[in-house]
Specification:
Elements (H helix, E strand, L loop, with lengths): L1 H29 L6 H14 L2 E4 L3 H9 L5 E5 L5 E7 L5 E5 L1 H12 L12 H10 L3 E2 L5 H8 L3
Parallel strand pairs: 2-5
Antiparallel strand pairs: 1-4, 2-3, 3-4
Helix pairs in contact: 2-4, 3-6
């Protein structure tokens, strides 16, 4: 009988170790590191090139609205008549929000999908950070504080 209890006890320890290992792996998958400066420089250039307009958060209301949006994620704001605006908050690099149309968003995604011409000039983390932007769908403006939608609507 002691052998059975030791086997049960060992299998419980093994299951606990397995569960802990899986938790660590899942946590590392979802924990995104903050974007690097080279990525932010290129990303700002690509957003502007694609047709996004830059709105600097240079006053209290602008900063409040910018911080109401998730950083480095697209937020979609559905307007009347089926029109949409895509907002991309950049609180670290330019302290601004990029605002664009559906066409600007599609242009941006097309720019990111183009092959990189000079791999020697690309930061090591660039590819993983581009994947993070391309893989996620934009977040809907619904559910974000209403003042962000009201504030940015003036710039559409």
């Amino acid at each position: 009988m002691p052998e059975v209890s030791r086997v049960v006890s060992l299998s419980c320890i093994s299951l606990a170790t397995l569960a802990a290992g899986m938790l660590v792996q899942c946590t590392s998958l979802f924990a995104l590191e903050p974007p690097s400066k080279p990525f932010l420089d290129k990303n700002s250039f690509y957003l502007s090139s694609a047709g996004f307009k830059v709105h600097f958060a240079n006053d209290a209301a602008g900063k409040r609205a910018m911080h109401a949006l998730p950083s480095h994620r697209f937020v979609v704001h559905n307007l009347s008549g089926g029109d949409v605006r895509y907002l991309y908050s950049e609180p670290q690099h330019c302290v601004c929000v990029f605002i664009g149309t559906r066409d600007a968003y599609q242009n941006y995604r097309a720019i990111l999908r183009q092959p990189i011409q000079q791999p020697d000039d690309v930061a090591a983390d660039y590819k993983s950070q581009v994947s993070a932007v391309l893989d996620g769908d934009p977040v809907d403006m619904v559910g974000n504080p209403p003042y962000a939608a009201e504030y940015f609507h003036n710039y559409y």
